[in-house]
């Protein structure tokens, strides 16, 4: 069987770990793949671990036991995080983003792979200690961001629908009141979509008063599940009467200035 150089093994191990975040990979998988001794593979992993730590690119955890191994936990340096959030604020301040009704146009941002991937890593790094079972979102523009967070945490994405679909099978539906407009809305989730007793985090692109989140909390109760975290790309801080207390946002929005640009700034959580 072919033998591989140390550089080749390290490059391959790094790729495998980063592409499988939060997944425990037994050392035997590496020894078989590279035809190398466990001691050799352990030394290679140590190099990967030290390199990631040095550049604040996440970390490698060791999991003890017969079914143990190593796993990659995503992370990002404070400098890179600050640079990204500052750049995102600059993009959101562009004058042509304000559309009738004083809304910010964000569709292009939410479907930009580079932006959403970085935002996903930053948010995911805030929740990796929560022992999350799944990421929950509603069927809006926030789906790409929620998918990236779920991918970085190595857990499934659960999408709550605004209406029932025949293809979803038996569903649970609830009515909730939006926090800003006080309108009654409906959300539903298939019985097959979420395992009872799950610990979930909610991810969305924009939050005003938090009515959708309270709806999600009540819907999860129907599955004996709990919401352990909330991650938002942009939070409207003009509405100070929030229905939820604990949340993490990247950017805070506080209205439109006289030049018709969005007033946005980095979230207080990351200052």
Structural class: alpha/beta
Q: How helical, in percent, are the residues?
A: 25-40%
> What is the CA-based Rg, rounded?
21 Å
Unreliable residue runs: none
Report the top-level CATH class of the largest domain. Answer: Alpha Beta
Total of helices? 8
Order of helices and strands: HHHEEHEEHHEHEEEEHEEE
Distance between the termini: 53 Å
Please, could you describe this protein's structure?
The protein is an alpha/beta fold and 271 residues long. The chain has two domains: 6-73, Arc Repressor Mutant, subunit A (Orthogonal Bundle); 78-270, Rossmann fold. Helices cover 34% and strands 26% of the residues. It has helices spanning 6-18, 27-34, 38-54, 78-92, 107-110, 113-125, 143-153, 211-221, and strands at 59-63, 69-73, 98-99, 103-104, 134-138, 157-160, 171-177, 184-190, 199-207, 226-236, 248-256, 262-266. It has a six-stranded mixed β-sheet with strand order 6-5-9-10-11-12. The N and C termini lie far apart (53 Å). 33% of the residues are buried.
């Amino acid at each position: 069987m072919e033998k591989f150089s140390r550089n080749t093994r390290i490059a391959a191990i790094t790729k495998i770990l980063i592409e499988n975040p939060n997944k425990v990979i037994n050392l035997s998988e590496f020894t078989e793949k590279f035809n190398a001794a466990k001691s050799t593979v352990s030394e290679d992993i140590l190099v990967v671990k030290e390199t990631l730590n040095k550049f604040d690119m996440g970390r490698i955890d060791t999991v003890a036991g017969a079914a143990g191994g190593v796993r990659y936990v995503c992370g990002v340096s404070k400098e890179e995080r600050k640079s990204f959030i500052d750049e995102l604020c600059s993009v959101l301040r562009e004058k042509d983003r304000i559309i009738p009704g004083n809304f910010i146009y964000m569709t292009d941002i939410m479907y930009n792979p580079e932006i959403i991937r970085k935002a996903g890593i930053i948010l995911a790094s805030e929740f990796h200690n929560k022992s999350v079972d799944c990421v929950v979102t509603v069927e809006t523009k926030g789906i790409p961001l929620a998918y990236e967070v779920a991918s970085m945490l190595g857990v499934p994405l659960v999408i709550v629908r605004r209406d029932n679909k025949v293809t979803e099978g038996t569903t649970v539906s609830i009515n909730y009141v939006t926090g800003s407009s006080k309108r009654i809305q409906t959300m539903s989730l298939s019985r097959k979509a979420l395992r009872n007793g799950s610990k979930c985090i909610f991810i969305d692109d924009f939050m005003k008063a938090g009515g959708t989140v309270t709806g999600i909390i009540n819907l999860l109760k129907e599955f004996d599940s709990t919401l352990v975290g909330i991650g938002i790309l942009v939070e409207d801080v003009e509405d100070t009467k929030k229905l939820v207390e604990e949340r993490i946002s990247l950017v805070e929005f506080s209205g439109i200035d006289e030049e018709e640009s969005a007033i946005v700034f980095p979230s207080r959580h990351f200052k």
